[in-house]
Design goal:
Number of strands: 20
Distance between the termini: 29 Å
Strand content: 15-25%
Number of helices: 12
Bound molecules: S-adenosylmethionine, iron/sulfur cluster
Helix content: 25-40%
Shape: globular
Mean pLDDT: 87
Radius of gyration: 22 Å
Largest sheet: 5 strands, parallel
């Protein structure tokens, strides 16, 4: 299993170099420096890539420490309260550094910037610029570039020439899940034209990208001029050497797409399909638009299409009104679907969402117990499924260069995260034998 946490979700395997590892290490002639901190999901990491290009274009060198930065940009997440608390901690520290004259300007971007709360944060912490998710391009003016609305919209690539790249295919979300702030801070769904996506990927591949991740809040809801997500995925799988996509919504997931995952060689056999709950009653309260058995049926299509593939999900425990019976149904679904990993979240009330005002708040101790029970269920199936890989010889895509202990992180075509003893460069493939497996990761040795 890759991550089971009540924290902000991160990619099950980091999808490209960490943002803090990118950027020019040398100070440019202008001597200006900027530090970018990213909180939250892949969408935010991708937005930070765009921000990074802006500040580089404006002549800033990227630095890693606040103390070394003229400008600090916090690109933020608003999905759960603990994400906001973390950002407040950073803002407090930045305020202190600014009083001491060690940081000049602070900008807050991303989902918190789009929320109402950002006004009070701006006053409390003396933030110079607050931008939401729709007007990030205004940062260009702030850093001394001409207005760049056209240049820095989602139409443009954020990561270029990397061995792995994110490509946004849609922004926003048309669902109204009871608990979720995303539609408020990211707006309604906008889909990018197919030619624009495929054109970008062709350019990325020509520039050396070996792995493309299609991104969006509900990627499988993508539609454009009569084309549906599966058409786009098939087109991308023709031009990209390796492709994956996230996040999908069960109501939009077509059997055709699930079968394409199994059939197309260049698509990683890994599906992230958030279920949130195994109780039909809770799914209705959450406005998810499907029942648990429909979800199970989708999973059986996926398992048939890609029997070796990996399946992950998101589950919320302790949504208001969740009873013991509802929780038992979630545990049953976890057992039935045999997930390979999951992000488990304790419900976090977000002001402005329907669930924040619902009765039936679940006591913390009960939420904690349910969290651990779901975690145990996921770890059980993840460990069992990972054990089945032991002894296999697998082709592994190297995602990250060797760490100090000589282990490189890679990914099998089945979507498993693997530690492997190689110094092969990121973006290349190695062949290795899976020697052991834990619930979170496989361990492999290079074949001689
Ligand atoms: N669009 C995706 C979907 O519907 O599956 C997920 C987007 S959201 C950024 C990622 C996950 O955060 C959700 O799937 C949900 O499990 C979790 N989440 C969102 N709002 C939450 C809240 N208020 N409390 C706890 N978890 C939440
Ligand atoms: Fe939030 Fe639901 Fe949209 Fe996902 S589908 S982003 S959980 S509103």
């Amino acid at each position: 299993m890759n991550s089971t946490t009540s924290e902000v979700p991160t990619a099950p395997i980091p999808l490209s170099r960490k943002p803090s590892e990118r950027g020019s290490p040398d100070a440019p002639a202008s001597g200006k420096t900027a530090c970018i901190r990213t909180f939250g999901c892949q969408m935010n990491v991708h937005d930070s890539d765009r921000i990074r290009r802006m500040i580089q274009d404006a002549g800033y060198a990227e630095v890693q420490r606040y103390e070394d930065a003229d400008l600090v940009i916090l690109n933020t997440c608003y999905v759960r309260e603990n994400a906001v608390d973390r950002v407040k901690g950073h803002l407090g520290e930045l305020n202190r550094l600014r009083r001491e004259g060690r940081v000049k300007r602070v900008a807050l971007t991303g989902c918190i910037g789009a929320a109402e709360e950002s006004q009070s944060l701006q006053e409390t912490y003396n933030i110079d610029l607050v931008l939401g998710t729709h007007n990030t391009y205004e940062l260009a003016e702030f850093v001394g570039l001409p207005t760049m609305r056209e240049t820095y919209t989602p139409e443009l690539p954020g990561t270029e020439g990397e061995h792995s790249a994110f490509v946004t295919i849609m922004t926003g979300c048309n669902y109204q899940c009871s608990y979720c702030i995303v539609p408020t801070v990211r707006g309604r769904m906008t889909c990018r034209p197919m030619e624009s996506v495929v054109g970008e990927i062709e350019r990325l591949v020509a520039g050396g990208t070996r792995y493309v991740t299609l991104l969006g809040q509900t990627v499988d809801a993508w539609r454009y001029e009569g084309k549906r997500f599966c058409d786009l995925l098939e087109a991308v799988s023709e031009v990209a050497p390796r492709v994956w996509f996230t996040t999908s919504h069960p109501s939009n997931m077509e059997d055709r797409t699930l079968r394409a995952i199994g059939e197309r060689d260049t698509i990683v056999k890994r599906l992230h399909l958030p279920v949130q709950s195994g109780s039909d009653r809770m799914l209705k309260v959450m406005h998810r638009g499907y029942k648990a058995d429909r979800y199970r049926r989708k999973i059986s299509v996926f398992r048939e299409a890609a029997p070796e593939g990996t399946l992950s999900t998101d589950i919320i425990v302790g949504h208001p009104g969740e009873t013991e019976e509802d929780h038992q149904q979630t545990l049953q679904l976890v057992e039935d679907c045999e997930f390979d990993s999951a992000y488990i979240f304790k419900f976090s009330p977000r002001r402005g969402t329907e669930a924040a005002d619902l009765p039936g708040v679940v006591p913390d101790a009960v939420v904690q117990r349910r969290f651990l029970e779901v975690l145990r269920g996921i770890e059980h199936s993840a460990f069992r499924r990972n054990q089945r890989k032991v002894g296999n010889i697998e082709e592994i895509f190297v995602r990250h260069g060797a760490t100090e202990d000589g282990k490189t992180i890679g990914e099998t075509w089945s979507g498993h995260a693997v530690h492997v003893d190689t110094d092969a460069a990121p973006g290349t493939y190695v062949t290795a034998t899976i020697e052991s497996a834990g619930p979170h990761v496989l361990y492999a040795r290079i074949r001689n």
